[in-house]
Design goal:
Helix 2 crosses helix 20 and helix 30 (637-655) crosses helix 32 (682-691). Among the domains are: 120-236, P-loop containing nucleotide triphosphate hydrolases (Rossmann fold); 243-315; 566-712, no CATH class. It has 33 helices and 11 strands. By secondary structure, the chain is an alpha/beta fold. The strands form 3 sheets. The protein has a 7-stranded mixed sheet with strand order 1-2-4-5-6-3-7. A two-stranded antiparallel ribbon has the order 8-9. It starts with 25 loop residues before the first helix and ends with a helix. It is globular and about 75 Å long. Residues 1-12, 28-39 have a biased composition (Acidic residues).
Length: 712
């Protein structure tokens, strides 16, 4: 890597200078002509392909939880992001100072669980009354008192609840574009309410009321109120919920009964909770304490271990502790490796530590002049506040016992990485190390390294983009292009960096090199596509128009990702898009549509059908109108019919797409195998297959595939 200093970020409030894309080398200029034969997920229809697609998804999701705690399901309601990424002359390419609301929808399951474990704070009734009357609440309270959970619970009666972050001036928030009958928890840690005053709080509340929506702005009690217009909307939290009741509620949720919860709360743990004061109350840490106590009821760890972990989590000296660890370069390398690979197997963590130390201090590791004596692994991990946990996991070759490594405090990974990046002169060694670890044979290790690259990009975007993300995006190796997408997905989870992520995808989509367009197509899946207003459908359509097979398949895989995280209504819309594409005469969109459908057809759900537990194709489950599936009363018949119609049309299109005949046969084989395993599903399946054969040609092709299955 080039030994360059990081480029300065733009001053706050000023748009960053537009970066010129790097000039491609002669090798990069030829990339579109080079065959891409290194696809890490195999060919479409290959059984291993779908296994690795799911493995990528799991690894990406775990990386987000380790570094960020966010899901990737974000929607953007913003005036600052307009036009299309592909050919989008209207896009605000500077974008840094524009206003937008970045909202992560809270899933219904999360709302239901919160309702079961919530312990209301002392001022609950005052909050609820104020919000019901005014539709806007400014909730001031101490960090750690459960402010966000309280705000979500206050809004849970609406159609949807979003955790939101506002960029720019609150006065310019596009209230008219927000969904109706929705709740918004707006995090405002700095107390930036001046913009709300400029808008006039009364007008803001009135606009929310007209849309049947409500908003709770969560403000730290230590910040000063900014405007006179917010006074009557403000409620101050005078104290946190009762810590004993909070732990008891979480124990009841995990153990099933209140009696079991009270039995698990031993006298020493109860004494610990009685010692909690408003100044030491941390709702999330108390919830984790309850989880550890529940685990102690069934596992080798004890309530004493749970109390030790609680005290470790309450430590706030990460910077000072890490500075002491840094005095021993080997321990610092181990701490960095633990931060990136937290929760993976011990061998991966140690392998990563050895690789970083070789890069950081090559002479010492090569000569071995300062080689330490043999140290027990548990003692070594203990010095960096980490531990090992034994688990039994099921892999491709059956069950196996593995030892997983992780920090005692789940909050350490992002804190350690941020401190090391900002305080130590290790930027180039860290990027070189993560690039090297992305080549690890263990996919979860490689994907986690790419996630860490994206996390570092939040702090030094120009440097990380230039040194790692851009070369990955131009690579002829498909796995490296996937890593560029993983890194960009992590970057896009930070609302402050969304404009940069979108602009980078726009640059790739406009590139002459075929590899960057492939990367753009993949980034528009669940990685970055979910932060676009209205979704990335138009952008994917533009990329798929006239696309070659490689680009069409990249679009197809992104459609699968979008479908996998969509609710039924959004899923129906995605299938309708693919149905339209399948009707086109040019093969680009048609191949993307059929391949996308076949990708979606592989998705499975665990559910019940007429009382029998089944694992069935998600499309079959969503398209059913018979009422046989569990929770069928929650399904919308109109949406189910739209899904059934599009599914049948796309299956019909796949039957007459000779390029994907083998893949269509593989999909049918999988669906029929499901029906054989769960005979009750046979009627649902064959009713759908019948709709997919509207002509004699389709019927004959369907019979051909089914006859081949019968001979197996």
């Amino acid at each position: 890597m080039a030994d360059e200093k990081d480029e300065p970020e733009a001053p706050e409030g000023e748009p960053p200078k537009k970066e010129e894309p790097p000039k491609p080398s002669e090798e990069d200029a030829k990339e579109a002509e080079e065959p891409d034969d290194s696809d890490p997920v195999g060919g479409l229809g290959d059984e291993r392909h779908f296994e690795q697609v799911e493995e990528y998804a799991r690894a990406r999701g775990l990386g987000h939880r380790i570094f960020d705690g966010r899901s990737s399901l974000q929607v953007v309601f913003a005036d600052s992001i307009q036009g299309n990424i592909v050919g989008g002359d209207q896009r605000n390419r500077e974008g840094e100072s524009a206003t937008g609301l970045y909202a992560e929808r809270v899933p219904r399951t999360g709302l239901d669980e919160l309702a079961r474990v919530l312990v209301r704070p002392p001022d609950w009734e005052q909050m609820r009354t104020a919000l019901d009357e005014r539709h806007l609440l400014v909730l001031r309270g101490r960090r750690g008192w459960g402010r966000t959970a309280t705000a979500i619970a206050l809004l849970s009666g609406l159609d949807a609840v979003h955790k939101a972050t506002v960029r720019g001036d609150l006065a310019e928030l596009p209230v008219g574009s927000l969904p109706e009958r929705s709740g918004f928890v707006i995090d405002d840690p700095g107390g930036r309410l001046a913009g709300l005053e400029a808008l006039d709080a009364e007008m803001f509340a009135d606009r929310l009321k007209k849309r049947g929506s409500k908003a709770v702005i969560v403000v730290d009690s230590r910040s000063r109120p900014s405007g006179k217009g917010t006074g009557r909307f403000t409620v101050e939290m005078t104290g946190p919920p009762d810590p004993g009741e909070l732990v008891e509620a979480h124990l009841t949720e995990r153990l099933g009964t209140l009696a079991a919860a009270r039995a698990a709360l031993d006298p020493e743990s109860a004494e610990l909770l009685r010692a909690v004061t408003p100044d030491t109350f941390e709702a999330q840490i108390l919830a984790e304490f309850a989880q550890d106590l529940a685990d102690a009821e069934h596992g080798p760890r004890t309530a004493a271990d749970a109390r030790d972990d609680y005290h470790e989590r309450m430590k706030t000296d990460v910077g000072d502790w890490l500075d002491k660890v840094a005095e021993d370069g080997g321990l610092l390398a181990l701490a960095c490796s633990m931060a990136v690979f937290d929760g993976l197997n011990c061998e991966a963590v140690q392998r990563g530590a050895e690789a970083l130390e070789k890069i950081r201090a090559p002479r010492r590791t090569e000569t071995g002049t300062e080689a330490p004596g043999i140290v027990k692994r548990d003692d070594l991990f203990g010095k960096i506040r980490a531990r090992t946990v034994a688990e039994t996991r099921t892999g491709r070759y059956g069950e196996m016992d593995v030892e997983l490594a992780g920090f005692v405090n789940e909050r350490y990974p992002p804190q350690v990485l941020e401190h090391v990046w900002k305080q130590y002169n290790l930027k180039q060694p860290l990027l070189q190390w993560l690039t090297q670890m992305s080549e690890d044979l263990e996919l979860s290790v490689a994907v986690r390294a790419a996630s860490a690259v994206g996390y570092f990009a939040r702090f030094s975007f120009p440097l990380v983009r230039r040194e790692v993300i851009a070369p990955w995006a131009r690579s002829r190796r498909a796995n490296e292009r996937e890593f560029a997408v993983v890194a960009l997905e992590m970057l896009a989870q930070d609302p402050a960096r969304v404009p940069q992520a979108l602009n980078l995808v726009s640059e790739w989509a406009a590139a002459n090199g075929g590899m960057q367009r492939l990367t753009a197509a993949r980034a528009l899946g669940s990685g970055v596509g979910t932060v676009l207003p209205g979704g990335p459908d138009r952008d994917l359509a533009a990329l798929a128009e006239g696309a070659d097979d490689a680009l069409a398949l990249s679009v197809a895989r992104s459609m699968r990702e979008l479908f996998a995280v969509a609710d039924p209504e959004r899923g129906a819309a995605l299938l309708s898009v693919m149905e339209r594409w399948a009707g086109e005469t040019r093969k680009g969109r048609r191949i993307a549509a059929v391949a996308g459908f076949l990708e979606c057809a592989d998705l499975r759900v665990r559910t019940e059908y007429r009382g029998e537990r089944t694992v069935c194709p998600a499309l079959l489950w969503l398209a059913s109108t018979s009422g046989g599936f569990a929770n069928a009363e929650d399904a919308d018949p109109e949406t189910a019919e739209r899904i059934a119609k599009s599914t049948a049309a796309l299956l019909a299109a796949s039957l007459v797409t000779p390029q994907l005949s083998a893949e269509t046969g593989a999909m049918l084989r999988s669906w029929v195998a499901t029906a054989r395993r769960f005979p009750a599903l046979g009627g649902e399946l064959f009713a759908l297959l019948e709709r997919a054969a509207p002509t004699h040609r389709h019927e004959n092709l369907m019979k051909h595939h089914l006859n081949r299955l019968a001979r197996r």
